[in-house]
Amino acid sequence: MSVKIGVISDTHVTSETKKLPPAVVDEFRGVDMIIHAGDLVDLSVLKLLKTLCPNVKAVSGNMDNPD
């Protein structure tokens, strides 16, 4: 059994962009887990990633709000 994990960082999605690049959406369809390695900038990116895969883990980066 194999597990497919999508890894991404530095998305810098803001409340203005409100979407992920189409290439990310295409590559992450059907993954078993998504790991975001920081610099989300806006927590809305987690909701966007969870539309592709419910299993999302993330760490904060230097551009992220500590909250």
Low-confidence segments:
none
Overall outline: globular
**Main sheet: strands, sense, barrel:** 3 strands, parallel
Number of helices: 2
Gap between N and C termini, in Å?
37 Å
Mean of pLDDT: 90
Q: What pattern of helices and strands is seen along the backbone? A: EHEHE
Structural class, by secondary structure, is alpha/beta
State the share of residues found in helices, binned by percent. Answer: 10-25%
Strand content: 15-25%
Give a verbal description of the structure.
The chain is of the alpha/beta class and 67 residues long. The protein has helices at residues 22-28, 44-50; strands at residues 5-8, 33-36, 56-58. Strands 1-2-3 form a three-stranded parallel beta sheet, covered by helices on one side. The relative contact order is 0.28. The model has no long low-confidence stretch (mean pLDDT 90).
In short:
The protein has 67 residues and is α/β, with parallel strands linked by helices. It contains 2 helices and 3 strands, in the order βαβαβ.
What labels describe this entry?
16% strand; 67 residues; 3-stranded parallel sheet; 3 strands; alpha/beta
Topology:
Blueprint: E1 5-8, H1 22-28, E2 33-36, H2 44-50, E3 56-58
Parallel strand pairs: 1-2, 2-3
